[in-house]
Amino acid sequence: MRRIGKIGLVIVLVGLVGGLGSLMFISGDIYRKLSSLKSEHNDLVQDYNDLLDDYNDLLDNYSNLFSDYDALRTAFEEPLTSYVVPTISQVQNWLAGDDTDSFAYVNDTWMCGDFSAMLMTRAKTMNWRMRIALMFYSFNGESGWMSTDGYDQYGEHGHAFNLIWCQDGNDADSELDVLYIEPQTDGEWWFIDGSGNVDTFNLYALYTFLSGFDTIWDGQGTFWVNHYSYFG
Fold this sequence. Notes:
The protein is 43% helix and 19% strand. The protein is of the alpha+beta class and 232 residues long.
């Protein structure tokens, strides 16, 4: 009986060891599954955070677009109740970031008047009173050269560009100075006469632009102003 009891005990021990091995195998499988689930959970959390970042970016873009739309709506539909007179450097810095000059000139579709209107409207979002200047002119030998017939003779060429009064400049006798802008190129200039005072375009006058001002008149020679006005 004692011998059978020992054998039985051995069998029991073997069974216990086998059961423990099975239990360890099952525990290892559960651990691997838990690890896999934890990894999937971490991936889902990361995906959620990425989606949340994308949502916040879209929300910021929406807010920016809405602000831009509201500013443009104001520029198109509402008059300026009060305006700001900028400095020349403020206008220059603004022009450096404005992309009006990046658009392509297309004859009979998008021309100098369109460029000028776009720049004037965008300046309004800065509370600046920018204007559109309109000039008709002619070169030597062309129709209108040296003519003083006014509205009866505009000359062979016409061009629209912009002007804005600034706080500073070269005119010591004036509080405001006129800065002219070529909206197709961001070229800018002002006039200084022999006495050092700032001048504007005069009707029935000759002008010669040297190269470097980035205007349509650069290096084109002397032209005669048949008509000049501004509005806006």
